[in-house]
Specification:
This protein is mainly alpha-helical. It is built from 15 helices and six strands.
Length: 340
């Protein structure tokens, strides 16, 4: 029997266009070429890189001249982009996050061009993959239905003169000011009365950054905290999301310290209490203890630490080592809150 090379042909379902996998291979080749060009010439701007990458895609696309038709027809481009996003998810090994969710995340902002949208795949793929992992990790904690319901209900609000916009009670609200083509970001429980309030500057896509910030609000919400049965899963999710967001170059995610404070609190409680008690104590600290990551002053932080200290009931068998460990752990937590 003759030896033959075995060529693996990946199978993908629910793709809209023929030859989509071949097209994604071309995108990856362009990505490598663009990355090398950027390394060879550090002065080249990202916009110029994106335009060069788009020209290569137009010239090399498997769809040949039809790629221009696809780019100029919103319905065709939606199908084309769906396929390429699905294949990007496969490359990133992000299998659980629905492609429809990812596509909405990358395309909802009306101020972003086709070049901006394809830039995620052609140039900024490393950051895109990390963002997708952040959402997938979080979905594993909160559940797919909860994540999709929370984010599919959110959209970009349009602002016109002499208008007030009431923000959401949990999430940030992104507002597009049409006259200036700029953005504002309304914090939870706030109202925007004029276009100069809550000005929002973002190096990337403001819609993506808003969704990352809202993901943090969801992860620390009372509804999610009360529904968690596995406190270790919660800690793992918090830690992985924090590390992933810190690795992003384009997005600052200004409420990240809020998640870090919650992570510090739950780690502290876990270090001091038996596993069977940590969930209830953490939940009570967030509700009955009125844990607020935006403490008004140092005294408020100290009062909360004292609230935690009073949760422990000592007996005659409580050793000095236990008391010292508790004191040091609570002191460390207080210092972290003061730093934040």
């Amino acid at each position: 029997m003759m030896n033959r090379d075995v060529i693996e042909i990946p199978l993908f379902f629910n793709l809209r266009f023929p030859c989509a996998t071949t097209e994604y291979g071309i995108i990856r080749q362009i990505r490598d070429t663009t990355m090398k060009r950027s390394q060879d010439d550090e002065r080249i701007q990202s916009d110029e890189l994106a335009n060069q990458a788009m020209k290569q895609l137009t010239d090399k696309s498997i769809y040949k001249e039809n790629i221009k038709l696809i780019f100029n027809n919103s319905d065709l481009f939606t199908r084309y982009y769906h396929d390429q996003v699905a294949l990007a998810q496969d490359e990133a090994k992000v299998y659980q996050l629905p492609t429809s969710f990812v596509q909405r995340l990358l395309t909802l902002n009306p101020t972003r061009s086709i070049t901006n949208q394809l830039q995620h795949l052609l140039i900024d793929h490393v950051e895109l993959f990390e963002i997708l992992r952040i959402f997938e990790i979080s979905m594993q904690l909160v559940g797919e239905d909860t994540l999709l319901n929370a984010f599919n209900e959110r959209s970009i609000q349009n602002y016109t003169s002499d208008q007030s916009i009431i923000g959401h009670h949990i999430f940030y609200t992104l507002v597009l000011i049409e006259e200036s083509n700029s953005f504002a970001l309304i914090p939870p429980n706030a109202t925007m009365a004029n276009e100069d309030e809550f000005t929002f500057e973002c190096n990337g896509d403001p819609w993506i950054e808003t969704n990352l910030m809202n993901l943090i609000e969801l992860l620390v919400s009372p509804t999610i905290i009360s529904s968690i049965n596995n406190i270790e899963q919660l800690i793992n999710c918090y830690n992985r999301v924090i590390q992933s967001i810190l690795s992003l170059n384009t997005y600052t995610v200004d409420n990240l310290e809020k998640l870090r404070s919650f992570a510090s609190l739950v780690r502290c409680i876990t270090a001091l209490l038996p596993a069977e008690q940590t969930k209830n104590v953490f939940e009570n600290a967030c509700s009955l203890g009125e844990f607020n990551t935006t403490f008004e002053n140092c005294n408020a932080i100290h009062e909360f630490i004292e609230y935690l200290r009073n949760l422990f009931v000592d007996s005659e068998s409580t050793t000095d080592n236990v008391l010292l460990h508790r004191h040091r752990t609570l002191l460390k937590l207080e210092m972290e809150f003061l730093k934040n």
